[in-house]
Structure prediction request, 108 residues.
Amino acid sequence: MRFLISVIDTASGMASPSEMAVIDEFNEKLRANGYWVIAVGIASTSDSTTIDNRSGAGVLNSGSSLYGTEYMSGFWIIDVPSNDLALDLAQEGSKACNRKVELRPLLG
Prediction:
């Protein structure tokens, strides 16, 4: 079962050196146990472009179309044998990155 663990941030999205050390340890645990698929940080919403090409509209806008102060600043994709393990790892990931996370199953 594959899951997306989204890191939810309200600041710059940049982890401090001490946070990165803990995140690296968590990533190594995921790799060592065979749960790792990928993990990355994501640039802030100020660096994004919103594209709406429904019906060939060709609309491009600088920035995010999402409102509010929270945004996704990174993610993990994990492959684990159970929902319970995914929940446990999401809790560990939240503690490691010192941010809220959202856990969602991947479809397909």
Notes: The chain has a mean pLDDT of 92. Strands lie at 2-9, 36-41, 49-52, 59-62, 71-79, 100-105. The two ends are 10 Å apart (CA to CA). The chain has one domain: 2-105.
